[in-house]
Amino acid sequence: MANIINLDRVSKGYGPTGPLLTDVSLGLDDADRIGVVGLNGAGKSTLLRMLTKFEEPDSGRVTHRRDLRVSALPQALELAPDLTVRDVVLGDAWLPAAFQAEHEWAGDAGVRNILDGLGMPGLGLDQPVGPMSGGERRRIALAALLVRPTDLLILDEPTNHLDIAGVNWLARYLNQSLRGALVVVTHDRWFLDAVCNRIWEVADQQVRAYDGGFAAWILARAERERVAAVTESRRQNLLRKEIAWLRRGPPARTSKPKFRIDAANALIADVPAPRDQVTLAKLATARLGRQVYDLENVTLYAGPKLILDDVTWHVGPGDRIALLGANGAGKSTLLRLLARVTDAAGFRAGQTVRPAFLSQELAELPGELRLLEAVEQVARRVKLGDRELSASQLAEIFGFTDRRVWTPVADLSGGERRRLQLLRLLAGEPNVLILDEPTNDLDTDTLASLEDLLDTWPGTMIVASHDRYLVERVCDKVYGLLGDAKIRHLPGGVDEYLERVDHDAAPGGGAAAPAKEPRAERTGGPSAAEVRAAKKEVSRVERQIDKLDQRVEKLHAQMAEHATDFAKIAELDASLKALQDERGLLEDEWLNLAELISE
Q: Residue ranges of region Disordered (predicted)?
């Protein structure tokens, strides 16, 4: 691996908002696949702009390797309305000349495969981008970056406006076809796990680096917070002992604390299952009765487009349903029917149904009120399952701190306004939740809080989302709109949906590149995807072992330095044994992974 970018004691801030990043030092190698996470407003996009040198730091230095080619997809994208698809994807109208494509459209099937994979089959080359939606423009710009060779690809929220199949295709493409390094900001946790081998967490004006993808970061952060809690508890105990010593006179004898890093399983040993499905179903039946929604021989249109053709479908109390489908498949149209925004012959809702509908557009919020007042306008106290919360407690779950709850609604960001709309919906205590892309603009911590809330919510829930992590976490049933005007039950969940999409696309050469590996039989060894994941984990474990070896060497040097201090030697020896135990666990993990790869 070779270093390509260095940040040396970099600081950056904007006027009255104060500093976002302070004394940040980082290095980026040519084989890194970095996922950048953090709360909204923490400075993630600012960090990306400094990596590209689009913005200079207030202090410190950003250095690039000579002749480094950096291409970036910003969060806010502006394309001249008179440009055509050909101008954007193959031309140099919006990118430096160094990134001009080296091939003609008609002669390179890879370009067409990229557009197909991003959900734009049959797109005309001479079609102007002016009339296109913001999502379509971003996908065309992303295609333009993917067709060009680069040393570093920087993507800010690339999965926005992609459906589940598009996100899956992009992850496969980056894993198999990208030759340079990657830095990506995204709230899509499945994507982070599928693509990244390191995580940068932007928080408290600092950037902390972790090995592994999203799951590894969660475990490492939990361990860090556990150690911090132990340290704070120890500090408080020391203070209490010091006060006791001052009051009693002679100091009491205390034993030295023993440090031991617990295995990941210990972190979750006392955590209950995400939800008790039987209890929640009973509660939902009590609140809803036996009938929620019945569709009998329903035909539904979105303008001239046929969405459902003679469809019969039943939604019962306590059902937790995910609706999957490509952009334009009709998910939002179906949700509006369930929310009674529209109507259709053959559709019936139960008499006790009290739905709450979160649309993609979002209902108008009272801009003249402050945030807490906007929640209390709906309810001052809310009962969610077995919990009763005040409006301020509910706001805190959604990431609004004591000071932020007094912010005028008109001054909230897009992500904060979406969180507030979710708050107001839940404050109304509905018994049916209908959510259309609820994760848009939410950071990973807020998503975790939302999912924890939905886990224990006792009602019927129908969610249309491209966030695979959310779907698999909070939903028990998956249905798909596959373009045949029917609602298909998918017992295999997201994996079955992707298999059907790939199967349907294959005859016409649809979302082809890169080709999907054949699914391995479970009795015949690991699948190709499992082997790739294992190889990534092997690299992570090897880096952790190297770091432990360096710490062991430092401990040996310290032991030699303090050879005559028996108390210090005992303390260092305890630390050395803890490191050796940790190394043993990592070696066992490495052996298991190596065995999986060799099968």
A: 504-526
